[in-house]
## 1
Amino acid sequence: MSHRDDPQRPARRSGAADSSAVSLTRREFFKGTGASGVSAAAALALVAGEAKSAAADGTPEQIHLTWGEDPSSCVIVSWASPGQSINARVEMRHASSRSRTVHAIQRTYTDGLNGQTVFTYHARLEGLQPNSTFHYQVTADNDRHRDRPFTAAFQSAPRGRVPFRWTSYGDLATPVTSWTLSSPQSRYAVQAVERFAPLFHLLNGDLCYANLNPAAQPAVWADFGNNVQVSAAHRPWMPCPGNHEIEFGNGAQGFDSYLTRYSLPHNGTAFPGLWYRFQVGSALFISLSADDVIYQDSGAFVAGPEPLRPAPSTGHAPIEPGVSLYIHGYSAGAQTRWLEETLRAAAADDSIDWIIVQMHQDALSSSKTGNGSDKGIREAWLPLFDRYGVDLVLCGHDHDYERSWPVRGCNRDVGRDAATGAPIDTCQPNPIFTKAPMDGSYDTSRGTIHLILGGGGTSVPVDVYGADPATGLPQAKVITKPNRPFLSAVADTFTKSGADALEDAIWSARRDAESGYGVAVFDLDPGIPRGKTSITVRYYHASGADRVPTADYTLFESFVLSKNRR
Ligand SMILES: [Fe+2]
Ligand SMILES: [Fe+2]
């Protein structure tokens, strides 16, 4: 649904950084963020005023961690500053070693719509001991708080077959409600991750919806970054790009804002940062950019009737009504080739028991008010997931919760055209069973489970699910072809159609109609040699948040994945 919001809606304030946080200790920092949504938002607005009046200096803000190629030995500290930093650096310390200084590299871009230049910094902390705690400070010569720089600590990943926890959701937005699709729930969602204290968090795309606030994209990113810092300065947050990271004027695919802010593991292709892999313990995590293969057109879009006019300083021409940034096929197969090579190597690697995939859009969604399922993913990637035994796929995009049965293969020609009822091939995924196993644990070596975790913190939940009117059984909308903009009945205004097909959602196992918000918590148990290994999944939802944002996350369901250890 979100992509149908008017991308030209003007921003009502120029957001700025919650830069007060950077000078606080971790203890003070957490105390400060325990406030209720309303008062915390008010504080943010005040601080924003302060930051706006301050000089554009090198004070660090939007501080966040990501894993390097090997999470047991490399973590990257990234941040932004209002102006250019001088001698941007991280001072780090481990209990058993002397402190050391790691200088950051600068990456900048100039927003293609409002002409603002964004300064970001990335310090690569390498040669870390596994499973160890590191304290660090972020500062620069022109840091307003250099007498008391931002300080935090993180844990490097363990090595070998060891237990660990991660968490996940997508579609977070910001707590600054004047931005399109933002909600106070976004602040509670970040706090929820801290409460579960995972080793790391997977953020499944649609980070902040800056492209729905085109006049102020960098300010929306800043509000997002400062909200996320509450957790992401203490544990890596690993993102994948979603359709709302696709921005006019910011690179060939519109991902320059995203790619400038995040330092992610190299993939060895011409598209660094858009897809990557990393291994923690016995689990391989693969992060994908599904806009490359989906049929949906849901990136930046000018609905009209007025063109979108970039600031004169950008030198960019107005973008006419009806123009959308549709990037289907942008890697010309490079991503899918990389995925197959990565999966083939994983299948031959005895240190890997589990393969977890993260992407934004959904191959299996029966949301009625959201986007639905996309046949593009079913065609391009589900056969690879089958061939190489992917256990779990974590998505967002539809702002709800849905769990599939384990699926393998697909049934052909069982869908129908949404308008005419004519038969249509939706590649309906085939569940290997449709009852919960007697022992309560799912053997994912037999089929892949898809989870939609789109309930980060936007203002638009879509937890209304499709049902066949005749049988009452779950029914899914499926997008089987591009839905490019067309002229609507309103003069000079363009629109896009929704999903073009329907199918019986025989693969749908559980849907949460009570709340469109939640966080999934995964606990991996490596098991013992010649025994079973398992992942216990607990999904906590924010009951009532569809009506009133709440900090209260309660258990909705839990289930176990279990398989023979290699
Ligand atoms: Fe979204
Ligand atoms: Fe999305």
## 2
Amino acid sequence: MRRTLIVPCVIALSLCCLAVQDATGPSIRLAVDLTDAPRNIFHATVTLAATAGEMTFVYPKWIPGNHRPSGPIANVTGLHFRAWDQELAWHRDPLERYSFHVTVPPGVKEVEAKFDLLSTDSAGGGGLAASSNLLDLNWNQVILYPDKAASDAVEVAASVRLPAGWKFGTALTTARASGEEVAFNPVSLTTLVDSPLIAGEYYRQIELVPAGEIPAHVIDMVADSAADLEMTPEDTTAYRKLVAEADALFGAHHYTQYHFLYTLSDAVGHHGLEHHQSSDNSTGARTLLDPKKHFLDAALLPHEFVHSWNGKYRRPAGLVTRNYQEPMIGDLLWVYEGMTEYWGNVLTARSGLWTEEQYREALAATAAALDTTAGRTWRPLEDTAVSVQILRMLGPQWESWRRGLDYYPEGELIWLEVDTIIRKQTNNRRSLDDFSRHFHGGESGPPEVVPYTFDDLVRELNAVAPHDWAALLKERVEATSQHAPLGGITGGGWRLVYTDKPNAFLGAIAEEAKITEARYSLGFILDHDGNFIDVVPGSPAYRAGLGPGMKLVAVNGRKWSSDVLKDAIKSAQQSHQPIEVIAETADIFKTYSIPYDGGLKSPHLERVEGQPDLLGDIIRAKTGTARQP
Ligand SMILES: [Zn+2]
């Protein structure tokens, strides 16, 4: 999953093998009529094996990649259970609201469940799943399965009926297709839920490896207009290089084909959701064409691709569950998401989707946000990971004090630090690449899940370069601290500095989200209308009494605007006089005096002369020009 980038408050067992097995248990037929997708209703018909007596059927609750009970149960409507065309009574379990109890009459062998899914929660990330011209189908949202069944053991034969003329992309293989009816080869419930489908009137597929090469890698794209699918030749080359760079990094793959499913639309929810053999990516309509949007979202596909190795194949033991009703434990999400954020951003640079300067500006923005997050003085990083269920969908108000999903960006800083320690200790002969080649690579083959614990991680790191990794990592994730772990930046030959020159990444976010960023000077972020989105505890604005819920009205006697505010900050640097602001709360206007004369401040990385540029080595491409299909 990808964190949101819009508000930059920090912005986005013992080892054993669990193969994704062939299903041997109950079988399900699932037919999904998607012809009403343009008004966001998916019609599902689920045929389930049944025996007489009370049976319990469940709707998937804990969704992989969401790491939380995000199955959109409230959007299940028009539910009926039938056998032999007779209506069967059902009732919802009063404690477990994802469970439905049905009394099955004697002699009945199959029960048919029909319901409509209101597709208003795309991939668990919020926002519509469909528009007039496209749709994103996550199978967990349109199925019921027998209570207590293991998802590996349930076989599902799924089919869809698409709106007329729409084309589709998915990692599922087609058994037969006629007109708009498509039937897929039966797979386990695990594989089905792991294989979303996108479809649309405007569809394009781009091959990323030469035809016939195994495994195939393709981008399947849908958009609301043909123009939005016009990927530049430079991007096509970069995505081909992404595949080559991931191959060079991990040395093996755990899929038989890979589909980047890519939706480009302003009408549906935006997200990235990882799977073994595909990823479900959704961004704004003009992402491929607008340089600013491109900069902000360039790391999305690399991030979700890395998850095929880190998160799907190698998975923290607490996130390996038997089915979708078992709760998940997110204590190692700083590895699952944090290392994915690290490798995703590094591969974005290695593949050429970002320039080296763009990578550094994004990293500076991440480091600065974490370094000024006040909540780090009370809340350890690990607590943000185990709290994913309660933190994921919150608004940004007081996020600096509460902390958000910091295991993503701070995980990136931690793995950069680990990488630079390995490199320094081995005279740059070994690196985190060597760790990942062993930990995430191994033998190529079909999807498989290999769980790990903290101790497994430490043991594998020690095999690459001996160090007290357990102590370092425990300090990083279990302790509170005043400052972010910036050792990877300094160890990489750079330092975090603040200047009056705008940070390019933060500038793009500010323009895109229409916000005003004064976080590193006065200590706040404003929305387009002047509402305080967040105020950093301890900052000049905080000490002056300002906070979210207030609205900025005037600065030094002038009506507020972004430029008026910047001018006031610059002038206070010369005059050393406090900045006077008027803020409104519930029709009450008050004046606040902010003593601050430090000028405009924006984060950047500055080279430390005389130190080796390990950061430069880390983001340098490992392969030559990508092979052309
Ligand atoms: Zn992720």
